[in-house]
Amino acid sequence: MTINTLSQDGVQRQQMPCLTKMERMIISMQDPDMGIKLRNQRLLITVIPHAMTGIDIVEWLIKKFSISDEEALHIGQLFVKYGYIYPLKEPRNLILKADDSPYRFQTPYYWMSTRWPASELDYAIYLAKKNIRKQGELIEYEKECYNALHKRINHTWDFVVMQAREQLRASKQRRKADRIVLECQEQAYWLVTRPPPGTLDNIDYGPERRTMNTRVQLNAEFYKKEIEHNRISLARNRVKSSICLESYVKYCEQYQPHDPIMQGCLPSNPWITDDIMFWNMNSEAVAVPTKLRVECWSFSFMELLNDPMGRKEFLTYLEKEFSAENLCFWQACEDVRHGETSKIPEKVDEVYKQFLSPGASRWVNIDSKTMEKTLEGLKHPHRFVLDDAQMHIYFLMKKDSYPRYLKSELYKNLLARAIVPQETKKSVFPFMRRQRHSSPSPALATQTGEDDGKAKNSNSVKSNSGTASRL
Amino acid sequence: MGEMEQMKKEAEALKTQIEAARKAACDTDMASAASGVAPAPRVQLKTRRTLKGHLAKIYAMHWSTDNKLMVSASQDGKLLIWDSHSGNKVNAVPLKSSWVMTCAYAPSGNLVASGGLDNMCTVYNLKTPVIKTVKELDAHTGYLSCARFLSDTEILTSSGDTTCALWDLETGKQKTVFLNHVGDCMCLALSPDMNSFVSGACDSLAKLWDIRDGQCKQTFQGHTSDINAISFYPSGNAIITGSDDCTCKMYDLRADQEVIGYQDAALNSGVTSLALSVSGRLVFAGYDDFNCNIWDSLKGEKVGVLSGHDNRVSCTGVPVDGMCVCTGSWDSFLKIWN
Hints:
The structure holds 2 protein chains of 2 kinds. Chain A is mainly α. Chain A has 21 helices and 6 strands. Chain A has a 4-stranded antiparallel beta sheet with strand order 3-4-6-5. Helix content of chain B is 8%, strand content 48%. Chains A and B meet through helix 1, helix 3, helix 8, helix 9 and helix 10 of A and helix 1, strand 1, strand 17 and strand 25 of B.
């Protein structure tokens, strides 16, 4: 079971589904045969039944789910945090200790998901009881809450105090062990649902959302737009799935060597070895690029243009072909599109002077129809006024100059000169692992010469103690 | 009222026809198309860094394009700029409103933005000697769920008032408002070519918008609950969505339909965030049950888990160079894995 909230628009929303998972586990932990062995626990002079130790919990989790003790402790902590298990000693400290500290399962009556939301009235009664028992000596934040509640629900205060007195009287008639257990359960519940200030609130599930926002009116106007939108959608051209899906397979295949998580990277992944050589070798202004980087430029025209070094190389090639103005024009158009609005008129004017006007120093070859349309648009310059012309030049470069560049000597030479970085071997010595240097220390440098077949660091597939098994 | 009923019927009829047209274009499924592909290896990533510094739930994080810096937003009322490799906090930006839900890093590295229940998107300049508020973008009538910079002069926002907007940072005004969703907008993602973007909302729909003309070009249905996370596939031809219905889906833009879903009967918590590896092969999806599951996008299988957070994974991000994954959680920590 988990929390269901009824939001503004009348839709039931399930919140915190993790609670369902937790409850499943908690129930199996309490199974009479396969669950944790419970026993009586001595607390000062009283004997509390059905208790277990922290280490019991951890060991049961390890055995049941075949996980590491780190993970078992982590999961156990979550149970305590969310109020399914509570500590008998130091009840205000909601953590799990993997030793013989005693713990108990919280009764389902006090599960977060059972009593949702925690009632203000109940909290008032609880604080009132505490206040009476401790004769006014509540903890600071509890005092504040108590006073705030007193103000807020003043009209029912008599009822609160009466209930509190009644419950205290009834509890005095119970056996001491039962009384202590009930007090612990109740306290644990309130520690979780009304956490002290400064601690993380575990039950917050985010701001409220609306499936059907009241801002939108479902009127005739709305449906008119819907119909229009659907008509256009129906008329659109749909590419066959086989072609689309084929492209993903190809894309993944092509980019796999460039995906460090799938295939590692050379010289090494800076996050694993703390060696930042990879970033240095691939920076913008490096003298000789890596092979992977240069290869990437051949995947698509956008890849070439997105890399500043690629753009520079391409420009050099175009200069040889006397068509460099194309790339310059394209870049100028990008600047207009993404630059400041206030500078658009002057930038567009510059572009016109340099690239489009008859007799311009770097005149670009656009077809007459596009040119006419663009010149017309220049009379009222706006951010996208050069889009058509830019598109024309872009495709010109893509269909013509780009393929020829990839076949050119300039590109081929660069590819041949491009380096494949040497793999940095991860240091084998444990005490070295924690060091973080911007460049390998001389000590490490001598170690890299050492051959250890096990020290394969570029392969990012590593064993992980934090992998969860099926819960 | 009769007229409206009729229009409603017509809209529905068109939808049925659209579904038929989509089916007609569907001549194969991802399982067949990817049958020849070797399964992805079992991916076991280790926590390489745990960034501690926030005092309350982390709601959002975003990598800078330099692959090392990142910004994170927490309800302790701060934006923290981290040099995540060294673990140092480079900057702390105090927020006027602590109810922050999103943050973004500009591609240039000069600006960051944040927004949330204050309905505003605040943009800060990181390069001035003291961090200054550049603009407060105030026109939404609902909470700000997501923001993304196109450049230092333009930013896109999605809001709980069901609209998305493109803002001019010079004037601080909305240039284009994108209207079509009927439920709160929860997330948005920019296409690689920056000509369009997609948004996901509480009406279970994902929509593709043209930034230039402000029109909704395509609508994708299939989810049965709020779409909390959305991302473009790196080639720009598909989008991946993550929803409260506990599944992720991949929609192809050219075929105009869902091509594969990522779900598991044992997973009964919603998806809060997602990010893709550089090749698009791996999908990192953060869930409400405190884990981040790793899916093979082509095979539709779960190939790994990142667990170690004590509360919901609220945000996930892969830097441009794809070197690692970062997860941020309501437990107030950010973890970097690979």
